[in-house]
């Protein structure tokens, strides 16, 4: 049941995006759709699906070149091509008869070992395969992706009573490892897990909004990041999903569920869909509407549900949200649950509905509580699922509030009340849907599980720790805000190196389980020292930074970096110096220092010059033939280019061909650990290079000539020119060198440090740093 080739039937928004994710993973895929009767191109719909995916924003493809892995066709001429597919998935119209007709055709041509799946979001899987052979039903398992499939981690895997458990297991492993998905095994019930509970929450939020007299914009403030949920909150999520989709899903669920599960839509919502035909982003109007002001700047208008007019309400402020700004999530959740006035009334109503329903659905939509939590986190962008949130508040407190409202407790909460237990997750245990404690099973190798065992933490600082990953491997983990790099982070890496040598470990992993690998250096600290004229201290700090980044390569044991998400500035420089990199496919890596008026000072400039020079043939590493390598490094750093994926990072030169790309971010620490173990036997400490060819004045002259032309043409600013000339000096190996000079890595590091400090002393750089810290945006001075 190994999946090496796949086929997707239906080239609409979801089908084409699923095909793109398969291609991202390196899986050849056949994409089929119907033939349009009046179009001479019989493959028009499939071709259009690929083109739509190529143009999608955010991008569906991690590298546009991967689109070549998709072969298009149609269901009349090319159905026979399905015989080569190891996995076939449909994403066609949501009509039961259409799906049944399709499966009859598929069974006639698919090979007997192929796994068959439906991406249906609502039609029960067992109904689709009625009338199919026992063998076909054994190999059929639902696979419900969330849109967009590349970015939303959740994949609901839905076996039917006839599905072979080995098929469920094999497909889940493929989807998690190869496609990078977070797997939730759902029961084959209406709405499955995420939509059943998520749509219930949206519907109930609308009802409570009307009761409390709030607006959609106010509700989105209350149910967004302040509560640990996505920026799109409730009504922006509805617009993105499509109000018609919610309308139909809520209607179907209302018919398929008991009366106490209230999926009744408000009159205003029904009017939007039935009368106004305002369906959200797909029609340009929903609860919000994008427009442009007289200057062409995008403006978001809010819908007034009393008048059905769109209004510019400015920045909506909500007192309860303002009161919890800057507090950690647990404190925010507790404060919002206890808030006063109509905002508190709304929040308690919505949260209690969600708690009651999640508990009622335990054992119905899925057989594990953590699957329900994960479905809401991975499918809707919540930081905590409903059971984790109840743990934050205290389960007994939630139970008391539900009973005070006159609710009948679901069996799970009744069992919790009887036991007196105040948390679903407790130590290494979690309760079952019946309320019985059971050992918690993590869905994958995850660092937070290691933290439950304090003996795994070898050394701890406020902003970083050294953790024993087992099997003779240490982890240097950063856990500061945005993982900005300061003294704690640098000293922890030094601690880890020493522990590896002193205690006989195999090697070291650099990684963490934060939101991002690292957003770069601690800019407030650097700026304050510069403004205080602490130049000796800054010089020492940059030297230390260079020593620590380069120690990843020049240590007597292997080091492996595990970057993901934002890997910027200093974070990128650490990654560049590791012996090996295991990168998350979603890697946004770049040397972005020019945005704050600096150049990479931790070896990044040196490393990119070295890499691009080494890519040239030995005969090209002298004289003017070096210029393309210098120019490539200059363009990459000088434009602060950031990769949009690990595949692009490899194309840009940030990753080597030998580095590893993991589709699932949650696997990178485990993969990095295995790489350390593989590298350790016979590992030989490399020596710093002494033979790096540079062009000196010739390269400086060529780059300056181009820069001044760009400056005169208005493409770069006055201060861009200042920063770029310092960058050119380092990439050229300094002034005074001839065309055949060779320098050491240390020479380039010294030039980096000198340029970094020179720029830091200039008013223009300090203005850029101040502006970035204040606004989060670069200043073009």
Description:
Mean pLDDT is 94; it is low at 445-454. The longest helix has 21 residues, at 341-361. With 781 residues, this protein is of the alpha/beta class. The strands form 7 sheets. The protein has a 7-stranded mixed sheet with strand order 15-16-17-18-19-21-23, with helices on both faces. It has a 5-stranded parallel sheet with strand order 3-2-1-4-5, covered by helices on one side. The chain folds into 4 domains: 6-185, NAD(P)-binding Rossmann-like Domain (Rossmann fold, 3-Layer(aba) Sandwich), CATH 3.40.50; 194-439, N-(1-d-carboxylethyl)-l-norvaline Dehydrogenase, domain 2; 444-592 and 642-685, 2-enoyl-CoA Hydratase, Chain A, domain 1 (Alpha-Beta Complex); 596-641 and 687-781, no CATH class. Helices cover 44% and strands 13% of the residues. Helix 1 (13-24) crosses helix 2 and helix 21 (523-531) runs antiparallel to helix 31. Strand 6 (141-145) and strand 7 form a beta hairpin. It contains 31 helices and 25 strands. Residues 480-605 form the Enoyl-CoA hydratase/isomerase domain.
What would a concise description of this structure say?
This protein has 781 residues and is α/β, with parallel strands linked by helices.
| Total beta strands | 25
- The CATH topology name of the largest domain reads N-(1-d-carboxylethyl)-l-norvaline Dehydrogenase, domain 2
Counting H and I runs of at least 4 residues, what is the number of helices?
Answer: 31
Level-1 CATH class name of the largest domain? Mainly Alpha
CA distance, first residue to last residue: 59 Å
What is the architecture of the largest domain at the second tier of CATH?
Orthogonal Bundle
The shape is globular
SS class? alpha/beta
């Amino acid at each position: 049941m190994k999946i090496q080739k796949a086929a997707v039937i239906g080239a609409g928004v979801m089908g084409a995006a699923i095909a793109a994710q398969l291609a991202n993973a390196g899986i050849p895929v056949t994409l089929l759709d119907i033939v349009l009767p009046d179009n001479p191109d019989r493959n028009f719909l499939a071709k259009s699906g690929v083109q739509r995916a190529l143009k999608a924003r955010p991008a569906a493809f991690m590298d546009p070149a991967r689109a070549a892995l998709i072969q298009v066709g149609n269901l009349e001429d090319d159905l026979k091509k399905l015989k080569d597919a190891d996995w076939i998935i449909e994403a066609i119209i949501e009509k039961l008869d259409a799906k049944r007709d399709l499966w009859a055709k598929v069974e006639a041509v698919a090979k007997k070992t192929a796994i068959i799946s439906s991406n249906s979001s609502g039609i029960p899987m067992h109904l689709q395969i009625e009338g199919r052979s026992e063998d076909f039903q054994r190999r059929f398992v639902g696979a419900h992706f969330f849109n967009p499939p590349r970015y939303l981690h959740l994949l609901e895997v839905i076996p039917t009573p006839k599905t072979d458990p080995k098929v469920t297991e094999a497909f889940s492993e493929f989807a998690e490892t190869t496609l990078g998905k977070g797997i939730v095994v759902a029961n084959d019930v209406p709405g499955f897990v995420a939509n059943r509970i998520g749509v219930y929450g949206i519907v109930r939020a609308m009802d409570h909004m009307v009761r409390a007299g709030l607006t959609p914009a106010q509700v989105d403030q209350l149910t967004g990041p302040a509560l640990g949920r996505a920026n799109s909150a409730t009504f922006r999520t509805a617009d993105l999903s499509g109000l018609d989709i919610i309308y139909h899903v809520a209607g179907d669920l209302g018919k398929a569920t008991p009366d106490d599960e209230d999926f009744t839509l408000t009159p205003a919502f029904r009017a939007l869909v039935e009368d106004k035909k305002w369906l959200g982003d797909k029609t340009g109007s929903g609860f919000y509407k994008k427009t442009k002001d007289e200057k062409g700047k995008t403006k978001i208008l809010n819908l007034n549900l009393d008048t059905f007019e769109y209004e510019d309400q400015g920045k909506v402020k909500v007192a309860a949200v303002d009161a919890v700004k800057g507090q950690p999530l647990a404190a925010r959740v507790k404060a919002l649950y206890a808030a006063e006035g109509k905002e508190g009334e709304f929040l308690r109503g919505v949260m209690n509905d969600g708690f009651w329903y999640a508990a009622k659905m335990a054992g119905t939509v899925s057989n594990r509580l953590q699957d329900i939590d994960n479905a809401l986190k991975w499918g809707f962008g919540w930081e905590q699922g409903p059971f984790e949130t109840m743990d934050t508040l205290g389960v007994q407190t939630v139970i008391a509030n539900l009973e005070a409202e006159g609710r009948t407790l679901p069996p799970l909460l009744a069992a919790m009340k009887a036991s007196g237990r105040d948390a679903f997750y407790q130590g290494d245990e979690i309760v079952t849907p019946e309320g019985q404690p059971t050992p918690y099973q993590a869905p994958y190798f995850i660092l937070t599980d290691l933290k439950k065992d304090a003996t795994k933490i070898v050394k701890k600082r406020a902003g970083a720790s050294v953790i024993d990953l087992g099997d003779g491997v240490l982890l240097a983990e950063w856990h500061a805000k945005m993982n900005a790099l300061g003294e704690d982070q640098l000293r922890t890496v030094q601690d880890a190196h020493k522990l590896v040598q002193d205690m006989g470990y195999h090697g070291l992993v650099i990684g963490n389980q934060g939101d991002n690998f690292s957003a770069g250096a601690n800019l407030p600290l650097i700026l304050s020292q510069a403004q205080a004229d602490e130049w000796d201290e800054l010089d020492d700090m940059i030297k230390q930074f260079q020593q620590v980044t380069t120690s990843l390569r020049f240590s007597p044991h292997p080091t492996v970096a595990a970057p993901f998400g934002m890997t910027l500035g200093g974070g990128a420089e650490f990654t560049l110096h590791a012996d090996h990199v295991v990168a998350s496919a979603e890697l946004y890596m770049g040397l972005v220092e020019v945005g704050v008026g600096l150049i990479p000072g931790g070896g990044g400039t040196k490393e990119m010059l070295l890499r691009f020079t080494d890519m040239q043939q030995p005969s090209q590493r002298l004289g003017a033939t070096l210029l393309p390598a210098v120019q490539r490094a200059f363009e990459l750093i000088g434009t602060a280019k950031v990769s949009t994926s690990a595949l692009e990072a490899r194309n840009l030169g940030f990753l080597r061909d030998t580095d590893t790309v993991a589709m699932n971010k949650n696997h990178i620490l485990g993969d990095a650990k295995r790489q350390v173990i593989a590298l350790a036997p016979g590992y030989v400490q490399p020596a710093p290079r002494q033979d790096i060819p540079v062009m000196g004045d010739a390269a400086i002259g060529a780059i300056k000539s181009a820069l001044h032309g760009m400056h005169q043409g208005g493409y770069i600013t006055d201060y861009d020119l200042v920063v770029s000339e310092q960058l050119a000096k380092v990439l050229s190996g300094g002034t005074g060198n001839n065309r055949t000079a060779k320098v050491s890595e240390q020479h380039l590091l010294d030039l980096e440090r000198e340029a970094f400090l020179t720029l830091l002393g200039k008013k223009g750089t300090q203005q850029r740093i101040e502006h970035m810290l204040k606004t989060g945006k670069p200043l073009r001075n």
